[in-house]
Amino acid sequence: MWLEHCESIGHSPTTMRKYRQLAESVIRPELGRIRLSRLTARHLDQLYGTMTAKGNKPLTVRRLHTVIGAMLSQGERWDLVTTNVARKARPPAVHAEQIQAPDVQQVRAIIAAADQKEPTIAALLFVGALTGARRGELCALRWSDLDWNAGVLTIARSVYELQGGIWGEKATKRHQVRRLSLDEVGLELLRRHRHEVERLAADLELEVRPDAFMFSRSPVGAEPIRPEIVTKFMAAVVKKLGISTHLHALRHFSATELIAQGHDVRTVAGRLGHADASITLRVYSHVLPERDKEAAAALGRRLALPR
């Protein structure tokens, strides 16, 4: 009932898949035998304790708690339960971990190695490092999203996947449309990529449509590379290189580099698609102390007393 409600009010297919997975793998097996009227916070605390003892990370358990809380909150509104007992339960605390982003040399090595295996995905990774876009947003890019003259890339959609190879497009995470500037380096990379795409299509006597997907294994860009394919590809590349990182870390790389170079947090937040600059500050606060030292040194140089 709750799952159908979530779907009816527009939750994304990716979110619905996660909800169903939790319902089938944890909630029904562990709590399904308990009547709603008899469910207590103690039941939830016992479940969280069991999951933690089995090696589940605190964040995983807390995500489950959030879903159960949302289910019970809706049940409360529907008068199916008198109170949301999840409010009294105590999931494990989640301690914020410092973001670990690859450095410039590592990102260059990753893109170079990717280019040897699959140039199309290498180009996608390059654009990801430049823009900080999410993997689904990168996969959803079409050639029509790029304004060559203005040097602006529009990010308006995201690709999602369902079981059985089914894919679709949805709005970005915050339903925002972002227009990101690209410098000559980024534009030149995409010119080369476009030239290669057109060359391969011409060899097959095919034509690439203006709205074709930018990163595709189809010779005419008829469909996007799936996000999970890119994730697994990246994992294989970094494993071979001996670099401890992952695909989403390219987003962190973009953000930390911009902050380290002195760009204001609001600009960085805009490029990342964060709803508020406070999110960027919270996630990347570990980068700011170094900038603070540089700011102090700059002011010191300006105000240095004559000897």
Molecular structure report:
With 307 residues, this protein is mainly alpha-helical. It folds into two domains: 2-87, Tyrosine recombinase, N-terminal domain (DNA polymerase, domain 1, Orthogonal Bundle); 104-256, hpI Integrase, Chain A (Orthogonal Bundle). The protein is built from 13 helices and five strands. A three-stranded antiparallel β-sheet has the order 1-2-5, with no helix packed on it. It has a two-stranded antiparallel ribbon with strand order 3-4. Strand 3 (157-161) and strand 4 form a beta hairpin. Helix 3 packs antiparallel against helix 4 (58-77) and helix 6 crosses helix 10. The longest helix has 20 residues, at 58-77. It is globular. It starts with a helix and ends in a 5-residue tail after the last helix.
